[in-house]
Amino acid sequence: MDDTRLVFGIDLGTTYSCVAQVDQFDQAVVLKNFEGKNTTPSVVYFGEDDTVVVGEEAKEASKMEPERTVAFVKRSISTDDAYNKPTKFPQGLDPTEISSYILKKIVKDANDAGQSDTEVKKVVITCPAYFGSKERERTKQAGLMAGLEVMAVLNEPTAAAIAYGMKVSDKKNIIVYDLGGGTFDVTIIRVNNGAITVIATGGDHHLGGVDWDTELAKYMLNQFNKEHGTNHDMDKDPVLRNQLMILAEDKKKSLSVPTRESVKAIVTYEGNSTQMEITRAIFDQLTEFRLDETIEKTKEVIEIAKAKGTTTIDEVLLVGGSSRMRQIKQRVDAELNCDAALTDPDECVAKGAAIFALNESYNKAMEEYSEGVRDEPPAKMIRGTGGATGRINVINVTSKTYGMGCLDANTGADIVENLIFANSPLNGNCKAKSTFYTVQDNQSGVQLPVFESDVTDEVNEHTIPQSAAVAMEEGEPSVLKLTKKWPKDTPVNVIFEIDTDGILHVHAEVGQDSIDFEMKIKGVKDEKELEAATAKMSRAKIQ
Ligand code: AMP
Asked: Hey, is 275 helix, strand or coil?
């Protein structure tokens, strides 16, 4: 196989993860895991010694040994949580490191099964569109620690749109409604002659299938408590909680079968058991408020797109495993007056990432060929088969607003001057500059407090109070070290730049000097930390 094709797409999901590749027939295909399944539960189990089990077995173990398992780690990717499990090794892992074990496992399975011509090494990993700089960096670092070469971090809805086979000649505005296991993402995308441009994006990283499971689990426990006069509380009992959640997920999935109007469930705990019938009507009623939240978010994003001149929607795609719930399509169709497409919701993100990876790889190889670095041109892609081929050009938007902390010249209040707003196109030139001045003679450094927020109104929210934003660094902001001592009132041009992966870089220009600014974002590792973590993690045996 041509080496340009040895690239892969990975959907690192909250509940399930998946690896895909474009095969020699230009079809995006999923690489199966050890159990022969297309997706692997993103659950990690820590054995007593140094074994780390990922996937179905770990999920099963979470019922009896919740203290040894970690699930939904993607929801915590921006946090400083440290997971201390009763294991000899490894200890005190952060969410990036846990995610890295998930990646290691799915890559290992794909390699062991020998489904592809080579090792899974060069990958595109997906993340929710609303992930900010820190979460994206961490996603990338999870890949690096798993020994992967991360070509790009791609937004999940963009990947889904690519996989849905948007024909290169299509000219359409599409809503991607992505309801996964733990996250909800809604994105409006314009497809035009191979260019895929994200117009607007929004979402909630704490809204997903697991919230539907929680409502159903609570309901089942209520029925059980009523019958037995007990007072069990799943928030105080992790074993009970995990059992109920797994049962709830199973029942929820059964209710997605088109002909199924009700399911039976049996809750057994401490020698008692209760049998109950769960109808679709009960399930829908219990969880309606969650569905309302997704519709509200969707409408918000439609408004943002409208404000940017995109007033028509031609298609709605339903993505993410939770979109299989029947009430989702019904409600979305009714609210948006459409016939939303639901195809391949569990795998389309990984497949889209694989197609994107191939495009990137092909483009790079063509460039190298034209520069004479490469002897042969890459093997041609056949246009238009299954959406896998045909050159695509993705332009994303930033999901967050970024600004500099400063003092309001009039009031002296702590404010943020926003430089780059959410939904700005990431076209390789997403930059903004602001000028600050040194305040004293012989100044050799300037503190640069960088803030991130969700504000979107460029006119009225050009400056906002610091309390309305989140500092990128914890504690005192890092100091930009100037290369020499400057007199008072020397202009310091601070330049914010967001790369095509959606990651913020800051540099400054003072006189003729151009200086890179290294922020120390808690949880984002520097090179040394990354090396140390990679070495530490490789000591565990992954199963
Ligand atoms: P994803 O993050 O896209 O892999 O979605 C995983 C979520 O989809 C989990 O919450 C699953 O319980 C849910 N899911 C998967 N299959 C179904 C189904 N048939 N019906 C309802 N929810 C499902």
From this structure: strand
